[in-house]
Amino acid sequence: MSAPSSEETDRPDLPAESDGFVRGLSQAIGGPLGDHAVRPDARRSRFWTAPRIILALLCMTLALSWVQKSPCQDGDWQKNVQYTRFCYTDVLALYYAEGLNEGKVPYKDHPVEYPVVTGYFMGAIGLPVHALGQKYPEINQGKWFYNANALVLSALAVASIAMILALRRRRPWDAAIFALSPIVLITATVNWDFLAIALAVFGVYAWARRWPVAAGLLLGLGGAAKLWPLFILGPLFVLGLRAKRLAPFWLATATAAVAWVAVNIPVAVLYRTSWNRFFELNQDRPIDWGTSWYVGRYLDTKWNTGTVGDQGPFQWLSDHIPVLNNLSYGLTALACLGVAVLCLLAPRRPRLAQLAFLVVAAFLIFSKVWSQQYVLWLLPLIVLARPRWGAIIAWTVAEIGYFTAFYAELLGAGGKPVIPEGTFVLASSLRLITVGILCGLVIREIWRPELDVVRQTYRDDPDGGVLNEAPDAGWVEGLRRRLRLTPRPAEAEEAAPPAASPTPVG
Description:
With 506 residues, the protein is an all-alpha fold. The protein has helices at residues 7-10, 15-18, 20-26, 50-69, 81-84, 90-97, 116-135, 141-167, 175-179, 182-187, 193-208, 212-223, 233-243, 247-270, 272-284, 292-300, 313-318, 321-345, 352-366, 375-385, 389-411, 421-447, 474-482, 489-495. Helix 19 runs antiparallel to helix 22 and helix 21 (389-411) runs antiparallel to helix 22.
């Protein structure tokens, strides 16, 4: 059920009025629109509407991203140009590493380190490029492969922001956070993550439109591209539990399972060893750059040598990967349990995007691997969960700082260090801290829903679908009362301020 139409709610949100950070910046050009300013009539036909401006801004960002990656497109990576120009991309590197340049079929001829939908995507573009290279040997196959991928991934990015705009029709300028993000500029084509992002955002849109089967199909396919879109099913379960509306969740989950199995079965049956590669790699990988475990291992070196018998806890975990895996999974599960408890005890049922952001952020914070492009997973979720410019800009600055330090670390990996190790650890820590701060701010707005700017525009949850404006199950209020989170009627009456005496009018 949608919020009732009114002059106030139908007018698009203006960030210079609702966002303190943007309001402060607007002072440089005269401040927000005044009460007597003449506003454009939305009913009149005009080309440059807010959604079209935002789509154009994203296209500009993606074009700049293509330019930023251009020094690496020919594959001639001499003198570490991929690091000195900050233009490294897995897309080009893996065209050769996965044997696509030799016409090898993913999984059949060469094991692929990604889930199957990403592998299918690589093959669908890579094999035609190889065939074209066989016919025209003079072309640079790697460059053609990268540019073809960049074009499709950019289209998926545009489709993703179109869905965000559709989810926030009354708040179109929220999507500008995504469209103008330097995160998109530097990581859009580092890997194939926009494939999973588009499927996840389309899945959320389908759920918002009350199409649980379509939502499950899209989330299942997204999970077969990169695992994280399946995490969105967890928040849907807890929200459905609180609203006592679990039937759509089970329908979406069953469809997601069928979709995931359907695209995995052909590879799992025919090329089981290749199919296992993704899972084996995730089990065997050591502590990766910039993770919380990496920071902990560095701090251990300040007090321990790292030799057997003189190891700190993170150094020990670095040598015992199975234990590290279980600890990482356990901490993520505990964090998700905490998010579930928060959902059930909050004064109002949280919004889907808020819980989805917290779950994916928890997974990254406790993961032993945090590749540079994983930041893209969080961007659309935070735009939907907490579209406040100030905190997101602070997080973006920390991410850019980490990106720069990471490439400096790679440059020094094979020889003389470019920056001190402590500088890289500091950049990693700031990235982790700012993500943690975003989580804290989202939790604060869940516990104090009057601070949620989305709910200042919409009555409940525009992404909630069948959950939007649904009443809570009776046991939720009973649980909150038992925990004294909701005052009893007598207590509420005692706590209420005395009514003011009527003022005579003379």
